[in-house]
Write a structure and sequence with these properties.
Elements: H1 2-11, E1 28-30, E2 37-39, E3 65-66, E4 70-71, H2 77-102
Antiparallel strand pairs: 1-2, 3-4
Amino acid sequence: MAAVAAGTRSAVAAPEAPEPAPPAEDGCWPCPACATRNTFAVDACTACGLGFLADLRTAGARSLVLPGVGDLTRLSRRALLAAACAFAVVVVLLTAVVAYLLS
């Protein structure tokens, strides 16, 4: 019986490992507009002049709108700091109220 099992194992071929992907070019970024590969030493595409990750910097690409506060991406640093401090105070007060009610 062991001979049959050993013979069966040799008949089954082991699956071949997939070929590894070709190595990526180190230090290059593709331009989203013209697909030219540029080195990280340059901040703009050498072919079309589009900036590195410029498509993410466009107006309206991201927004974080909170009711009563507005769009956080358009606030100044001072307004963001005030909003963060207000949020922290609210969290501390809510935690204190919950702790008081549960004790």
